[in-house]
Automatic annotation (TrEMBL):
Top-rank taxon, per record: Bacteria
Organism: Dinghuibacter silviterrae
Cited Gene3D superfamilies: 1.25.40.390
SusD-like N-terminal domain span: 86-221
Protein name stated in the entry: Putative outer membrane starch-binding protein
Length: 545
């Protein structure tokens, strides 16, 4: 087990929860005066439920909501499999409604995090011994977990209720997005004097001062979207706090891909200095506290089922998720020296030796369900060749590519979170970064190019070239534009839950890609789900839904 993961799964303090579709969530734990934390180790235990809740949907349902709604990935049905009530189709077409499963489950997930933190804050603030020197630090850390959930709330749902009082189960009204932004900014700033400045193994996977500034930088970067007022210099100042700390650095070129391996963590190559805040995952530990899967199962969705042996997986992957040609061609095909190209499976497939072809033996009909020759049951062996195009050749209305080998080999696959060859299940050991140092550099570069004041002798160009020097052996850039920063962000943060956020900020979310032609600006945020509206009649539905 990787260091400092165990605190995420200490469930003895969390016994159950009721409905979580309002932000005023009644949560119950077994945190009593006899077990109040009196030292840092005990606080790790006490804060466990908040981090267990945070781990919940992040790598699966939240990932799909952020990713399938963009040009980064598509998850079509294949012979009826993965249609899943049209939830994936709706994400791609931007035709989701208030009953979409991702829309519902992610609201529930974020509301649960907020409710759990509110409860823990209420108990610890009232009864944790005032003589405990780290009390204010502990409370600030928990507030930062809540702040991250609120950030995801306003980013995805726009206007949401504000609830910070455990035990107040009144139906709170929807609050304007800009007002929630202001509340969130003030709440984070109030935590800054108390947050830990420690990094490394002892604090890995926990919110500290620099993750707070990374969150502020992300808020200020998107302030014009959220509030109508640009905050570029505030974004730069928040980034500078992280940069000037000297505690973080870019993973070198040789470690970029390793940074996302199942072995990543506080002492591994690349991630030990680049991850500012990460969510740990461990297939040996389970979540039996909250109704979320709380797993990282990227390989299940991304590895072609024909390549189970290649990656030594103990389960059959299905790989229904792929990218679309325009995404790969726009961001990954042009620089052959870019290490980030190595995260993709494309074209003819070989075993790990790079020589032995990956082959599949089936029948003529099994290879092509539309085979019309005279020998449908005759044996057919072929080398797996992942095609770039994704075609709805069985049923376009049902978003279906077909149920044959041609269909299952459609689309290039991204295996950035490299398949975990050590796991005994489909759950992976790869930790998922939320904030990385690379993001700090690119946020500052973007803010400068948008009109913010350059600091520390750094320009948008120098910041981008500093990153690219650790990602490609191609020559440094000689100029930089907002589009080139957008392209660099897309290459750098593929599969890391930021592309939807970037597309909206750069005005690209209404573009056409794949089979999607929707250009409704109302779809920049999701609807408030039906279940939430039922439980809280004071909520107001978002425009256009």
């Amino acid at each position: 087990m990787k260091m400092q993961k165990s605190f995420l799964f200490i469930a003895v303090l969390a016994a159950g929860l009721a409905s979580c579709h309002k932000l005023d969530v009644p949560i119950t734990t077994q945190l009593t005066p006899s077990v109040y934390p009196t030292d840092s180790a005990q606080f790790i235990t006490a804060s466990g439920p908040a981090y267990v809740a945070l781990r919940g949907n992040y790598a699966v349902e939240f990932f799909f909501q952020q990713t399938l709604s963009t040009d980064e990935a598509i998850l079509p049905a294949r012979g009826g499999n993965w249609y899943d009530g049209a939830q994936n189709q709706q994400m791609h077409y931007h035709s989701w409604n208030k009953d979409n499963n991702y829309v519902n489950t992610n609201w529930t997930w974020l509301a649960t995090i907020i409710g759990v933190v509110n409860q823990e804050l209420s108990i610890l603030n009232a009864d944790e011994p005032s003589t405990y020197s780290a009390k204010q630090q502990n409370l600030a850390e928990l507030k930062m977990v809540r702040a991250l959930a609120y950030f995801y709330m306003i980013d995805n749902y726009g206007n949401v209720p504000i609830d910070t009082v455990y035990g107040d189960f009144n139906a709170h009204p929807t609050v304007a997005r800009a007002q929630v932004f202001s509340f969130l900014e003030n709440d984070i700033k109030g935590c800054l004097p108390y947050l830990s400045r420690a990094t490394g193994t002892a604090t890995y996977g926990r919110m500290n001062l620099y993750s707070a500034y990374a969150l502020l930088a992300k808020m200020y970067l998107n302030a014009q979207v959220y509030t109508g007022t640009a905050r570029w210099n505030d974004c730069i100042a928040a980034c500078d706090t992280v940069i000037n700390s000297g505690l973080y650095s870019l993973a070198p070129l040789s470690d970029y891909l390793v940074m996302f391996y199942p072995t990543n963590g506080p002492t591994s190559l690349g991630s030990e200095n680049e991850f500012i805040f990460a969510i740990p995952y461990d297939p040996n530990l389970t979540n039996n506290v909250f109704p979320f899967r709380a797993v990282n199962i990227h390989a299940r969705y991304d590895v072609p089922r024909s390549e189970q042996a290649k990656f030594s997986l103990p389960f059959d992957p299905s790989a229904p998720e792929s990218t679309i040609p325009s995404f790969y061609d726009s961001y990954f095909s042009w620089d052959k020296n870019d290490v980030r190209n190595g995260q993709w499976l494309t074209g003819l497939q070989y075993l790990k030796d790079g020589v032995t072809p990956v082959t599949v033996t089936t029948t003529n009909l099994g290879y092509n369900q539309f085979y019309t020759g005279g020998s449908p049951s005759a044996s057919y062996t072929y080398q797996v060749n992942l095609s770039e195009a994704v075609t709805l050749r069985q049923d376009s209305a049902l978003f279906d590519c077909g149920n044959d080998e041609i269909a299952w080999n459609m689309g290039y696959r991204d295996i950035k979170f490299y398949p975990d060859w050590t796991s005994t299940s489909r759950n992976q050991n790869n930790d998922e970064p939320v904030f990385r140092y690379a993001d700090i550099l690119l946020m500052k570069a973007e803010a400068i190019l948008q009109g913010g004041t350059a600091t520390n002798g750094q320009t948008a160009l120098s910041l981008c070239n500093a990153l690219r020097a650790q990602r490609t052996t191609s020559p440094a850039w000689t100029n930089v534009t907002l589009d080139s920063i957008y392209n660099e962000r897309t290459r750098e943060f593929t599969q890391e839950n930021w592309h939807r956020n970037d597309m909206i900020r750069f005005g690209k979310f209404e573009n056409a890609w794949g089979f999607k032609v929707d250009a409704d600006v109302n779809h920049r945020i999701f609807p408030i789900p039906t279940t939430a509206l039922t439980l809280n009649p004071n909520l107001t539905q978002n425009p256009g839904y």
